[in-house]
Amino acid sequence: MSDNNQTSTTPLSSSHIKQDPYSIHHFDSPATVLVTPLLTGDNYRSWRRAVRMALRAKIKLGFVDGSLPIPKEQNDISNWERCNDLVGSWILNAASREIRLSILYAETAA
């Protein structure tokens, strides 16, 4: 009788992981606070790094760094706007009140 406590796991292939920047997980709420502490101005560098990491993990960094511009196809525009507004909400929620007021009316998250 062998004592084999090893378990085999099959890694997920990339096809199992959704890579669509327009996909929104049911946990992705406009009220989500992506990072703490909130942006105050003095902590911009560390805040920026934390926000970029969080957005990259959610496949939404393209809305901020400009690599995912507004699409030309009419069918894709509403999906882009929905995700852009979601990312914009996350950024607003990650900023102090004073900074939030100055970025509230930005049209895009970029």
Search tags:
globular; 0% strand; 110 residues; 41% helix; single chain; mainly alpha
How far apart lie the N and C ends?
A: 62 Å
Succession of helices and strands: HHHH
Global structural class: mainly alpha
What ranges have pLDDT less than 50 throughout 5 or more consecutive residues? none
Mean pLDDT: 89
| Quaternary organisation | single chain
Count the strands? Answer: 0
Structure commentary:
The chain is mostly helical and 110 residues long. It has a domain at 43-104. Helices cover 41% and strands 0% of the residues. It is built from 4 helices and no strands. The protein has helices spanning 44-57, 62-65, 74-93, 97-103. The mean pLDDT is 89. This is Retrotransposon Copia-like N-terminal domain-containing protein. Pfam families: Retrotran_gag_3 (PF14244).
Question: What is the gist of this entry?
Answer:
With 110 residues, the chain is an all-alpha fold. The protein is built from four helices and no strands.
What secondary-structure arrangement, pairings included, does this model have?
Layout: H1 44-57, H2 62-65, H3 74-93, H4 97-103
InterPro entries: Copia-like_N (IPR029472)
Protein name: Retrotransposon Copia-like N-terminal domain-containing protein
Domain Retrotransposon Copia-like N-terminal: 25-72
